[in-house]
């Protein structure tokens, strides 16, 4: 059989159209048999192991809730997808939510406030870590429930500390001394850094330890160009002059080549997500964790982060979605089940204080840190302010290209502008 | 940095295709038929270009006069976004950074891809292998390549500084230092991009008439003079093509800066497209991001036009 060119084109077109139209049609074939089962779509951007952990929970929920069927869908580029989905009515029913984004999204009216449902079902805010709920709130309303909490603490290489004869530091003064003592140089070349100083974003933690504040309570101006800010940078400056660190030392090192896992840095401020990584990659790594050292006046502080579950305003099955969110986060047993499966500290306080965590030498210090850890200020202008104004200037300071005063003044000047421009909404 | 090679080597100089002055040549019947077929064949590409390029550009232009967060309908903002742009120190920093990048990247791109093409254009055994080797980076994922490069350029444990160390050269901190960070990105993007331009130059070299070389040989011209007076002028349109595409690609630098430096240290590698992405997708300020994008578009068009002018002025009449 021979086709003419137009004929072949026509056939191809028809075939393509068939594929496209059947592909796009709503596939409601498998709901026909199951009567009035409510179908929930749950979006998240965790794949691989994370996906398995989520499926453990959706399976458990589906088993105990015959009227509802949740399905987890991996969305690699979830937020972009959510932006377009919200406007075209294709929003999911439940979303895995990086909490700090609430300040940007809640004012846009795309997330469902949960206060009334919480009140009706007797779910008090106190069941969860207060800071985590605060991060999910806007204008007094709660827009999601905390699923996980994490906080930065000081991870230290036990072997290095023993060799150098130092104890895990509890104060800034001890941190400085330990960092300098742990550092190794050969012919002037840095071989081992006493303390990782790669993440200058940790400035806010040091500032809080010194008793300072990043921004005013209404988030309209920066307040870090203060004596406390100077104290923090002076500590960094003393450590850099003491040879502890050099910019670029950890560039490109991650996972299997991670500087802490491979013994190239002796101490690092990081979060519980790295416990598994370090156990996996650091075969010869004997490490411990302590809460962050206290500031010059004894101030304790750390950064809290973590995820939550939210229900989009455009969700079609809000009641069932709430059932699922409540079941997973507010019920102790389920929160704990997931926490154990995924090795994350749950946002549910009762579940978090289970012996599984409190009795573990790795998790216990993180839990202690969570007692006073604070989330980032919840306003839309804050993340851009850190990214655009503060971090670049702190990098210049660490690289020796600006003094502490210059870096702080410049950060303040640029930061105030960025706050003003990005808080408008 | 993907690009089509289709139009590359066959571009003819502006003079070559110009219709003769005076009487307009009448189209014969087969000519008309060809023109119709030509339109039919280009129609699908033009339709796609219209839908996926012209319309979005027009849309971005419209959005740049609004306040728009994707989630709620846009509201008219007049020239507010452009006013904000004038006071946005960070955006000017990104423009300064990208011009610095272009000034290093584009000349190096021309020199290296041409040198490679000249070296590989000789008919020797095994050339196909070398051509493949130099082309492989082009088909590598930019993000994956940048991740590996970031490790290779590590100041203390990266293989590059290790090798330099053997020769007693203290390697720089590369991406860790503001003065070398952009150069590191130049190196990585060159590695990734020379392959495709080398191919374009190879094709261009095949179009240089052999009799010119014979004449030059008869006149006793050496290698360098042959290159200067025959090869380089003959490749003028190819060079123009490579320069233009390299410039356009360079202005849109994103992947490598995002993966290797996150714009740092100290905003030294922050690029306009990086900033547009941040503004639009992380801060939900699509109106302002559109104003930034449109401004970048105008700058790219301006630079391309200047490049064309410069190139036209070099035409030996």
UniProtKB/TrEMBL annotation, chain A:
Listed name of the protein: ABC transporter substrate-binding protein
Top-level taxonomic group: Bacteria
A Gene Ontology molecular function term of the record: maltose binding
InterPro entries according to UniProt: SBP (IPR006059), SBP_1_CS (IPR006061)
Recorded family membership: Belongs to the bacterial solute-binding protein 1 family.
Upper classification of the organism: Bacteria, Bacillati, Actinomycetota, Actinomycetes, Streptosporangiales
GO BP, sorted A to Z: maltodextrin transmembrane transport; maltose transport; transmembrane transport
Keywords from the named record: Signal, Transport
A Gene Ontology term for the protein's cellular component: ATP-binding cassette (ABC) transporter complex, substrate-binding subunit-containing
Organism: Nonomuraea longispora
Keyword Ligase (UniProt): no
Record-linked SUPFAM superfamilies: Periplasmic binding protein-like II
PROSITE patterns: PROKAR_LIPOPROTEIN, SBP_BACTERIAL_1
Keyword Iron-sulfur set for record: no
């Amino acid at each position: 059989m021979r086709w003419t060119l137009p004929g072949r084109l026509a056939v191809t077109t028809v075939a393509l159209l068939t594929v496209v139209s059947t592909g796009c049609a709503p596939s409601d074939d498998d709901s026909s048999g199951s009567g009035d089962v409510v179908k929930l779509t749950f979006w998240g951007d965790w794949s691989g192991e994370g996906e398995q952990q989520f499926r453990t929970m959706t399976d458990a929920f589906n088993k105990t809730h015959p009227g509802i069927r949740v399905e987890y869908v991996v969305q690699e580029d979830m937020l972009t997808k959510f932006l377009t989905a919200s406007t075209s009515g294709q929003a999911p029913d439940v979303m895995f939510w990086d909490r700090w984004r609430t300040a940007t999204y809640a004012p846009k009216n795309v997330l469902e406030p949960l206060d009334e449902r919480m009140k009706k079902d007797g779910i008090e805010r106190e069941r969860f870590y207060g800071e985590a709920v605060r991060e999910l709130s806007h204008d007094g309303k709660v827009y999601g429930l905390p699923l996980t909490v994490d906080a930065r603490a000081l991870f230290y290489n036990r072997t290095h500390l023993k060799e150098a004869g130092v104890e895990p530091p509890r104060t800034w003064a001890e941190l400085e001394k330990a960092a300098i003592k742990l550092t190794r140089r050969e012919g002037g070349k840095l071989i081992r850094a006493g303390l990782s100083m790669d993440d200058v974003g940790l400035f806010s933690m040091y500032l809080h330890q010194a008793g300072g504040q990043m921004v005013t309570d209404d988030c309209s101006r920066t307040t870090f160009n203060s004596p406390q800010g100077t104290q923090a940078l002076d500590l960094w400056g003393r450590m850099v002059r003491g040879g502890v660190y050099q910019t670029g030392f950890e560039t490109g090192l991650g996972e299997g080549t991670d500087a802490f896992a491979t013994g190239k840095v002796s101490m690092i401020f990081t979060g519980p997500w790295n416990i598994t990584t370090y156990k996996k990659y650091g075969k010869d790594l004997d490490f411990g964790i302590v809460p962050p050292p206290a500031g010059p006046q004894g101030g304790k502080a750390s950064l809290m982060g973590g995820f939550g579950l939210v229900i989009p305003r455009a969700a079609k099955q809000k009641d069932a979605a709430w059932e699922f969110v409540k079941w997973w986060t507010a019920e102790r047993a389920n929160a704990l089940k997931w926490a154990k499966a995924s090795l994350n500290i749950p946002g549910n306080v009762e579940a978090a204080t289970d012996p599984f965590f409190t009795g573990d030498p790795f998790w216990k210090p993180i839990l202690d840190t969570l007692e006073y850890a604070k989330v980032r200020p919840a306003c839309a202008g804050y993340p851009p302010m850190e990214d655009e104004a503060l971090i670049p200037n702190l990098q210049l300071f660490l690289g020796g290209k600006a003094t502490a005063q210059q870096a702080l003044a410049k950060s303040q000047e640029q930061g105030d502008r960025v706050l003003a421009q990005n808080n408008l909404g | 940095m993907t690009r089509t090679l289709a139009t590359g080597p066959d571009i003819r100089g502006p003079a070559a295709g110009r219709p003769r002055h005076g009487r307009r040549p009448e189209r014969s019947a087969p000519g008309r038929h060809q023109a119709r077929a030509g339109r039919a064949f280009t129609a699908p590409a033009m339709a796609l270009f219209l839908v996926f390029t012209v319309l979005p550009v027009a849309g971005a232009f419209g959005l740049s006069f609004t306040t728009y967060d994707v989630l709620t309908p846009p509201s008219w903002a007049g020239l507010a976004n452009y006013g904000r742009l004038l006071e946005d120190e960070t955006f000017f920093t990104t423009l300064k950074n990208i011009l610095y990048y272009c000034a290093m990247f584009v000349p190096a791109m021309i020199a290296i891809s041409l040198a490679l093409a000249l070296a590989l254009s000789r008919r020797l055994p095994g050339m196909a292998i070398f051509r493949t080797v130099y082309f492989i980076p082009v088909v590598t994922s930019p993000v994956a390549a940048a991740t590996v490069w970031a490790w290779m350029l590590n100041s203390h444990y990266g293989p590059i500084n290790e090798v330099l160390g053997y020769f007693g050269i203290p390697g720089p901190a590369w991406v860790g230092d503001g003065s070398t960070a952009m150069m590191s990105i130049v190196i990585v993007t060159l590695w990734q991009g020379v392959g495709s331009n080398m191919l374009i130059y190879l094709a261009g070299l095949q179009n240089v008439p052999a009799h010119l070389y014979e004449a030059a040989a008869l006149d006793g011209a050496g290698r360098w003079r042959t290159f200067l007076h025959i090869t380089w002028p003959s490749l003028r349109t190819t060079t123009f093509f490579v320069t233009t595409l390299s410039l356009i690609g360079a202005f849109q630098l994103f992947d490598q800066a995002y993966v290797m430096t996150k714009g740092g240290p100290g905003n030294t590698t922050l690029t306009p497209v990086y900033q547009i992405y941040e503004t639009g997708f992380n801060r939900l300020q699509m109106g302002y991001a559109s104003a930034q994008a449109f401004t970048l578009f105008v700058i790219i068009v301006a630079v391309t036009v200047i490049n064309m002018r410069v190139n036209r002025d070099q035409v030996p009449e």
